[in-house]
Amino acid sequence: SVATSSRLDAIRSVYGVLVARNLMKIEASDNDPSSSVFKMDGFISNSNYIAKKITMVLFINDRLVECTALKRAIEIVYAATLPKASKPFMYMSIELPAEHVDVNVHPTKREVSLLNQEVIIEKIQSEVESKLRNSNEARTFQEQIVEPSTSCPIGTGKDSPFNSTPSGSKSQKVPVHKLVRTDSLDPAGRLHAYLQVKPPSHPEREFGLTAVRSSVRQRRNPKETADLTSIQELISNIDSNCHSGLLDIVRHCTYIGMADDVFALLQHNTHLYLANIVNLSKELMYQHVLRRFAHFNAIQLSDPAPLPELIMMALKEEDLDPECKENDDLKEKIAEMNTELLKQKAEMLDEYFCIHIDIHGN
């Protein structure tokens, strides 16, 4: 980096503004010969910093090195303290007596080990945790601004919801349960409802999609419900165990956003809920499949896909080494056996799932 007045400026010039503005200064030290002697100062990322991988810049006695134990210890603190196990950015400069550093851990002398390493790491860990807990109490969330295109001015007609109320008239009071992030009856995130829609620039492409959709609809099995007793019993079982309160929440909730990989935030009336999307998706899909059993939509491929090739692709997908042809004969045998099995079940697959398999296994 160019010569700068501070370390923070150097970090900004190398790693960017987003990193630099989310850093906190950190210091730790010990001067007890019986336990450890060191002095550390640097910067660590706060609770607003989001990254896909951990970054650690570590200097010991002004030499750029790595210390895997220290890096792992701090990563554990972040995972335990912050939501979503945030990957931190860390810059640390540690000074300690030269004889306390072992540089012979790795041939390149890049990896180092320290005398009283456990004590030093514990003290730095404790300081990092203290800083993080304080920063986590006040998080900042960036709001996204959606600007309409200049070619799509927002409608200003008499029906426009943006028209200001005439002077002197009181604005309508919105009921509490309607105070939601988006229209409670409109699918969440549908921002285009507030902007004028552009006419499609490729009418022929739009026509192609329309043709596909209509052909899918035409191929729908005309039966409204499956006449299989087993299916009717499963549906009756679901209906008899239905929870009216949960049903109302799922039916009329507004999606706010994902809290982590599994839980989503949903708003219903004035309440905020954490929903396990994995479990909810499985249950909804199961019920959806049951109610549409034997009358799914179907799409006809221009060239029917050969089952043996599809099965081979699936088997090879699991290989750690795609180029390895060691078990190809076995895979071909498996593909052949499965193709025959599916051909035998073709009539059932067609009736139940609208999957048509011809006599050639396509």
UniProtKB/TrEMBL annotation:
Similarity-based family: Belongs to the DNA mismatch repair MutL/HexB family.
Taxonomic path: Eukaryota, Viridiplantae, Streptophyta, Embryophyta, Tracheophyta
Keywords annotated in UniProt: DNA damage, DNA repair, Nucleus
Predominant localisation class: nucleus
Classification via SMART domains: DNA_mis_repair
GO BP terms in the entry: mismatch repair
One Pfam assignment: DNA_mis_repair
Segments forming domain DNA mismatch repair protein S5: 11-133
Protein name per its UniProtKB record: MutL-like protein 1
